[in-house]
């Protein structure tokens, strides 16, 4: 089967399962004050484009592009089911969200990730994201890494 990426509602069982796995993973690595997870209701806002990756009918990954209202957006809740790793799910999600960012004529896509997630950091660097200072409402945190890619 091939992995497909579509814009969907985050409020569905397969996605909720992934978000719970993501929460547990983040909580195993970082203290509460260093976890910047957004909840399901936030992911349903009109300023959010939510991507779901499927392998056949099974939800295997997700991520959100959250528009800030100033021409930028933030990647939130990027997560791939550990059982689906190796299928290039994260790369397909990145391609889809960057394509949408281009269609929306956003100037930059930003993100926050933790320093104990080398695979995520490597993925973002591979896609041209560079380290920046904290943005938006984020405060400096020695456990956080802030990154950005200029789009236009």
Average of pLDDT: 96
Q: How much is the radius of gyration in Å?
A: 14 Å
Shape estimate: globular
Task: Give, in order, the helices and strands.
Answer: EHHEEEHEHEE
CA(first)-CA(last) distance = 34 Å
Q: How many strand segments?
A: 7
Quick one: biggest sheet?
A: 7 strands, mixed
Output the strand order for the largest sheet: 1-2-3-4-5-7-6
Structural class: alpha+beta
The portion of residues forming beta strands comes to 25-35%
Question: Which residues sit in consecutive blocks of at least 5 with pLDDT less than 50?
Answer: none
Q: How many helical elements? A: 4
Helix content estimate:
25-40%
Please give a structural write-up.
- By secondary structure, this protein is of the alpha+beta class.
- It is built from four helices and seven strands; from the N terminus they run E-H-H-E-E-E-H-E-H-E-E.
- The longest helix has 17 residues, at about 15-30.
- The termini are far apart.
- The mean pLDDT is about 95.
Question: Key terms for this structure?
Answer:
single chain, 152 residues, 7 strands, globular, seven-stranded mixed β-sheet, alpha+beta
Secondary-structure map with pairings?
Blueprint: E1 3-7, H1 13-29, H2 40-43, E2 48-55, E3 58-67, E4 72-80, H3 89-103, E5 108-114, H4 118-126, E6 130-132, E7 144-150
Parallel strand pairs: 4-5
Antiparallel strand pairs: 1-2, 2-3, 3-4, 5-7, 6-7
């Amino acid at each position: 089967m091939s992995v497909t990426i579509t814009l969907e509602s985050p409020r569905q069982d397969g996605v909720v399962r992934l978000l719970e796995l993501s929460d547990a993973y983040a909580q195993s690595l970082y203290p509460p004050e260093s976890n910047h997870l957004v909840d399901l209701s936030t992911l349903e806002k009109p300023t959010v484009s939510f991507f779901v990756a499927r392998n056949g009918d099974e939800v295997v990954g997700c991520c959100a592009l959250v528009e800030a209202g100033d021409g930028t957006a933030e990647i939130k809740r990027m997560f791939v089911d550990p059982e689906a790793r190796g299928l290039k799910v994260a790369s397909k999600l990145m391609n889809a969200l960057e394509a949408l960012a281009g269609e929306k004529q956003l100037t930059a896509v930003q993100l926050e990730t933790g320093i104990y997630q080398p695979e995520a950091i490597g993925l973002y660097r591979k896609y041209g994201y560079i380290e920046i200072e904290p943005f938006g409402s984020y405060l400096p945190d020695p456990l956080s890494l802030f990154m950005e890619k200029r789009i236009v």
